[in-house]
Amino acid sequence: MMEKREKWAAVVITRPGWDQVRLLHRYRTMTVWLPKRFHDSGLLADEEVRYYAKPLSQWVREVFHDYDHWIFVMSVSLATRLIAPVIRDKHRDPSVTVVDDGGHYAVCLLSCHAQDGNEITRDIARILQAMPVITTGSESLEVPALDLIGREGNWHLEDWATLSHLSRMMLEKDPVGVVQESGSPCWRYRDSFSRIYDGWEYVPAPVFQEIRGWLWITHRR
User: Fold this and answer.
1) What is the domain extent for residue 53?
2) Mean pLDDT, to the nearest integer, of 32-58?
């Protein structure tokens, strides 16, 4: 089976913003969306450049989920207002990175983990020589991002509500243990957990009193 090719898009509203996207366009294949008033202005003769004529808010609602990764060159407040009506959930939304017209900052706004938005934002910042702005708690507090665990081995994560609860515990420095019954012992963040057991039967009773949150890695359902 062929791997799905991810689709990238950038939307520009000013000519200075176009200068930023033009730099990014050299490193990444993407569809660049420009205002209709830029048409025939000679900015770029490229089949990947398209124009939007509808009001920006309406146009974003129509095309937002056609792409996997977005670069919005505008203010964070405007980008937030534009995407708010079409946000679904962290598993289905594309990543969104916002770059200011001057190319000073690159801000990860949406799907920071699920769609690798944080890493994409860092790459964009490196190309533009801008400051990456990453606000997810796991990065800012240097704790494991549990929703990324097992991605290398295509592990399937279940019970997202419990995972969110465990993530909050780790952000607040509460102990979280691991019971791993299957899968490779080499996975991201493994060294961040001080208590790891091969099965529930190996967990001492006093540890259950000490640790209230557990990550269970298993082949069982």
Assistant:
1) 8-135
2) 81
